[in-house]
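Quick one, tokens below. Sequence please?
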């Protein structure tokens, strides 16, 4: 289990445990149930296949979701996303476009470097326990400035200015893991490892996310988006 998972578990253990955490979600759940729309995915749908099919349409430039005014009235009544995407804030990486999904289909957590902290984990807990997402995808991408900055910080033994050290320090563990393998392309290896590392966090952090993974109600995956080709590869 990753170090950050242990840190998150310890910090949360004093506040929420198992069933207590889920019971605390109940007031929110009642609101979410009232918001569900006819667009809710069937329980048997494969969320990853749905994402992959959408990405294939995006790459082929044959999207289904070109009219974003469609179903606007229904969306005003609530949301029922089928997957959560932990994405980078990079302006070129837009999950709804990349996976050709309509507004309301995806629950997005975005931060430069697509890593998970307490706020991101709490957002995923809400999406899982309340909104009923079926999958979490941590989506890295080529040419990620946050990954590059972290590599530079490690190699130069110097932290960037302002509040950027908090971002670099969050990504640093994945870069160190990649460096141990002595890859020929550290940038590519670190980008992939950062996605895998945070996918593990989303699966192992308790009590809500880990319990839902253990019961088969939720699954986490890591993926990489190639900005040049538009293609997403699941790792």
């Amino acid at each position: 289990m990753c170090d950050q998972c242990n840190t998150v578990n310890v910090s949360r253990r004093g506040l929420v445990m198992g069933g207590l955490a889920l019971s605390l979600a109940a007031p929110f759940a009642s609101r979410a149930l009232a918001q569900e729309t006819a667009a809710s995915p069937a329980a048997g749908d494969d969320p990853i296949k749905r994402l992959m099919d959408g990405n294939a349409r995006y790459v082929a430039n044959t999207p289904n979701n070109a009219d974003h005014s469609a179903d606007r009235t229904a969306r005003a009544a609530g949301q029922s996303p089928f997957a959560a995407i932990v994405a980078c804030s990079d302006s070129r990486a837009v999950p709804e476009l990349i996976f050709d999904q309509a507004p309301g289909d995806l629950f997005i957590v975005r931060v430069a470097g697509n890593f998970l902290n307490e706020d991101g984990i709490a957002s995923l807990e809400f999406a899982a326990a309340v909104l009923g997402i079926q999958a979490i995808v941590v989506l890295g991408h080529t040419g990620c400035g946050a990954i590059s900055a972290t590599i530079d910080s490690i190699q130069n033994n110097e932290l960037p200015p302002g509040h950027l050290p908090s971002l670099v320090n969050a990504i640093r563990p994945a870069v160190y893991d990649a460096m141990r393998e002595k890859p020929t392309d550290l940038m590519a290896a670190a980008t992939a490892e950062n996605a895998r590392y945070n996918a593990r966090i989303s699966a192992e952090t308790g009590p809500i996310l880990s319990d839902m993974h253990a019961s088969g109600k939720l699954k986490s995956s890591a993926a990489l988006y190639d900005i040049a080709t538009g293609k997403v590869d699941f790792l």
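The mean pLDDT is 86. Residues 3-65+76-234 form a domain with the Beta-carbonic Anhydrase; Chain A fold (CATH 3.40.1050.10).
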